[in-house]
Amino acid sequence: MFDNSFLKKLNILYIESNYEDRDYLSNILYRFFNNVIVCSNALDAIKSFRQKDEDFFIDIIICDRTLSDSTGIEVLKQIREIDFHVPFIFTSSNIETSDLLLGINHNITDYLAKPVNAKDLIFCIQKVCHKRYQDRLKILMQKDLEDLRLVVNEVALVVRTDLHGNISFVNNYFSKISGFSQDELLGENYSLLKDENSNNHLYEELLLKVNQGIIWEGKVKKTSKSKEDFYVYLTVLPIHDKDNSKITELMWISFLTTDQELENKEFKKEMVKNIYTNRRINNEAREEIDKLMARIAQYSSVKSELLSKKQEAVKLNNEIESSKKELLNIEEKVKKSAFDSSLKIEEAVSKQKNIKEENEKILILLNNLNNELKDKNQKLLDLTKQLSSKLKEIKKL
């Protein structure tokens, strides 16, 4: 299934010298994507890509193997000199092994055989750009976190420790307020600065909760190197590894609670919460995006299989319809042949009946003629006898 809202955010550079192919595919691309730059030659394509930052960000390039003024491989080489990571899809009616190897060497994204199936192309673009969008989102989120970290470093006392509270990092502001140098603090336990009158179990309970993944917040009293007391509003955050599977360190963020700081305490408290929330959201977003991409890949595979089955079903249905038509034609021919045969049989029967009647008439006629012949033969015999008798009489005379 196409993610139309996502596709409408993408900008495409399409390079094709063949007019018919360019006209067909560009009309489809215009319907699905935000901006489609269509070029018929390599020179215009490279020029358009160089101007991308002035107008908008090009998300993916589709280029044919053979162009009127160059080749797709040459365009890929020039693009890679400008941007090594922009996705590049190669189209060709005849993919050569040498082109395939050169494409791989220049970080080609995918090859599609011509004539290009529009659905396959859009699915390919969606899959590739989803991954790039995910990577870009991670970079932006990381940048936001870095910006927040820089802001916090300027207004807060920041310390990183292991799970037991042993210090591995302190910012300059913390070193300035506490009076200890960074070298003096590294390797020491965070409880080094606790006030002597503070509850001895405070840090034990704090570490227990944070190691369970619970954010600890509260106002605590501290003592500087020069034994001056100061109050801070402390937030301790559990920091997870990149897989979000376990806690690897603790982040101690404090704000001085002077009169001026008390006025801004709620704002700063919210800022610290936002840092933790952003990290959690980043991890959750990454997990959800990974799950979504896996589901998209699964659905694409299922859909491809269903489309294949549907095409087979359509083909089979067409064959069945063709067979039905052929059977109807054969049936009509058989009916006509049977009807013609019936007429011929009737005609033959009628002729046979007439022949029989004629034969009977002929037999009767032959019998009559035979009887007449017998009578004439008898008369001839009688005449012969008479003649013989007459001859005898004549001889006697």
Explain this structure.
Helices cover 62% and strands 16% of the residues. The chain is an alpha/beta fold. It is rod-shaped and about 205 Å long.
Summary of the model, kept short:
This protein is of the alpha/beta class and 397 residues long. Helices cover 62% and strands 16% of the residues.
What Rg do the Cα atoms give? 52 Å
Shape: rod-shaped
Count of β-strands:
10
Strand content range: 15-25%
In percent, how helical is the residue content?
55-70%
Biggest sheet, spatial arrangement of strands: 2-1-3-4-5
Secondary-structure element string: HEHEHHEHEHEHEEHHHEEEHH
Rounded average pLDDT? 79
What keywords describe this structure?
single chain, 397 residues, alpha/beta, five-stranded parallel beta sheet, five-stranded antiparallel beta sheet, 10 strands, 62% helix, rod-shaped
Topology, please?
Blueprint: H1 4-7, E1 11-15, H2 19-32, E2 35-39, H3 42-50, H4 52-55, E3 60-64, H5 72-82, E4 88-92, H6 97-105, E5 110-113, H7 118-155, E6 157-161, E7 167-170, H8 172-178, H9 182-185, H10 202-210, E8 216-223, E9 229-240, E10 247-256, H11 259-263, H12 265-396
Parallel strand pairs: 1-2, 1-3, 3-4, 4-5
Antiparallel strand pairs: 6-7, 6-10, 8-9, 9-10
Helix pairs in contact: 3-5, 7-12
